[in-house]
Fold this sequence. Notes:
Blueprint: H1 11-22, H2 37-40, E1 42-50, E2 58-68, E3 73-82, E4 89-98, E5 106-110, E6 117-124, E7 130-134, E8 141-145, H3 152-164, E9 173-174
Antiparallel strand pairs: 1-2, 1-8, 1-9, 2-3, 3-4, 4-5, 5-6, 6-7, 7-8
Amino acid sequence: MKNKKPKITGPLSLLSMLLFTACGGMNYTKTVDHVDIQKFMGTWYVITGRTSFLEEGATNSVEKYTWNEADQNIDIDFSFHKDSPTGPLKSIPQKAWIFNSQTNAHWKVQPFWPLKFDYLVVAMDPNYEWTVIGVPSGSYIWIMARTPEISDAKMAEIMSTLQAVGYPTDGMSKVIQQWK
């Protein structure tokens, strides 16, 4: 008889997986020197990345950031079309808090209570036309822009910037962005 590993499902397996990927290995905590939160707010298109399992099959991925003055946090609406640009629209609302108020470049993001994860602005265009978001473990990275496309030349520049700060760039996948 074959030994079978027990199958763990539900919130416990999600928590275990997230904690496992957040621990161990390298620690990439370098961020940009400063983020003007008001300039950062708005719509960002996810161009490419090493994304989470929640984004499997995501196309037309968009993050919308809104400063919530009353709660002193950031409301995040992550939306995408599942499996194709005309597939079902999915939305994952989240909250974020500025963790490092000197730079505004290190946030804590909460996809659901009680979990909060590090969100690092590791690179950014001076005019807020593109940004790169990472996590301390380096396992996830998102390159986002104000428009659904980035030129090959601009992408090469962004990758060079990431390599200069030592952030891992392997294993990234382009996100389909097809808007009519």
